[in-house]
Amino acid sequence: MSYPSRAIIDHAALAHNYGVIAGRTAAEVMPIVKADAYGHGLVPCVATLHRAGAAIVGVAQLSEALELAAALDGAGPTIFTWLYSPHQRAELRAAIRAGLHFSVPDHWALAAISQARADLAAEAAGGADALPPVAVHLKVDTGMGRGGVLAEDAPALIAAALDTAGIDVVGIWSHLARADDDAATTARQEATFERVLAEARAAGVTIDYAHLAAAGGALWHPATHHTHVRPGIALYGIMPDDSDPAAAKLRPVMRLEADLTMVKRVPAGTPVSYGHTQTVAATTLGIVPLGYADGMDRHASSRARVRVGAREACVVGRICMDQFIIDLGPDSPAEPGDAAIVWGPGGPSVSDWARAAGTIGYEMVARLGPRVPRIHINEDKP
Fold it and tell me: What is the pTM of this model?
């Protein structure tokens, strides 16, 4: 089945970006592939990243981690996951069977994982001795104000984890809050993280995974790299601060485009779209079959631009659920079926659209809906 829109995912660019980031650090790279690899397609992207050298990847939601584990069937990288609830008992058991690494952000998570392992042991012929320990990364809040225990409470969590049967503490992790705009905050978080690492080592933890830096830290703060860095958005050729990725030698991975479904001449004074928020001069209008149901942010109405052939065209009027209208200009040669590049190589950037919508590049790609097919190219050319 064909569609009038498509997101073309260039795996050569993805592998290139992995290599650029890996080349900037002595740490191992843990690609973050949450939210369907930031809208790019989870399983194909993980396959490319694994071939490029990734030994472990991170996925936020436990359900998505299990989907990935089932698709890889033991053949891919280690999977680290960090968002789950104590009520997801069956999923926790399945994840332990699959050998996932878990974040432990507090004592409740330690208890939930321990209970899930005990439930599996009760079913196993050899009991608890037949099961390998569960690898966990203890989460510390060094200044984000989000997940993890406060730094002053970390020693108690470390001690509890070490005293829990069937738990193998393999890592300590945290997250930077302002890596893209405030070096002083990053330095304070780094100092706190270093202190917790020292406390963990003094308690007897062998830390195979110490990770604080996401994309911003990986690109701009080498002191935060430790054993692993966790780039997400930068892998897909979008900068954390929406600056030009070419300056960091990164390439956009996604090109979003759609075929024009109508082209028509209209007279001066024609009002356009819902609410008649915009009136155009005599011009040619085109309809792009993507709308807010597909993730096109309505705040970009009358502001964002696309490229059709050699020309850019501005969105006019309000973005609708399934389509939006563009002003092709009075002398446009465009015809129905011509491709409008919404963002990516050959057109505006994701960050251009983010600025038009008053948001960030992360949101633009992560919200791209399932009605838009992902077409994967260059999967055999890392």
Answer: 0.96
Q: Please name which of 372, 367, 371 lies closest in space to residue 39, comparing C-alpha atoms.
A: 367
Strand-pair category, 324-327 with 283-288: antiparallel
**Binding site as annotated, residues:** 146, 321
The length of the chain is 382
365 — phi, psi (to 5°)? -80, -35
| 84: annotated active-site residue | no
The total of other beta-carbon atoms located within 10 Å of residue 26's CB is 10
The pair of structure tokens assigned to 343 is: 């963002």
Q: Which residues pair with 343 in a beta bridge?
A: 256
Binding-site residues from annotation for substrate = 146, 321
Question: How far, in Å, CA of 279 to CA of 371, rounded?
Answer: 30
Place of tokens 């030009």: 244
> Does CATH place domain 31-240 in 3.20.20.10?
yes
Domain boundaries, the chain: 31-240, 254-377
Of 249, 264, 274, 381, catalytic: 274
Pairing of β 339-343 and β 305-308:
antiparallel
Equal fold, 31-240 vs 254-377: no
* 264 carries an active-site annotation: no
- Note down pLDDT in tens along the chain; length 382 residues: 778 999 999 999 999 999 999 999 999 999 999 999 999 999 999 999 999 999 999 999 999 999 999 999 989 999 999 999 999 999 999 999 999 999 999 999 999 999 999 999 988 766 667 789 999 999 999 999 999 999 999 999 999 999 999 999 999 999 999 999 989 999 999 999 999 999 999 999 999 999 999 999 999 999 999 999 999 999 999 999 999 999 999 999 999 999 999 999 999 999 999 999 999 999 999 999 999 999 999 999 999 999 999 999 999 999 999 999 999 999 999 999 999 999 999 999 999 999 999 999 999 999 999 999 999 999 986 5
- The CATH architecture assigned to 254-377 reads Beta Barrel (2.40)
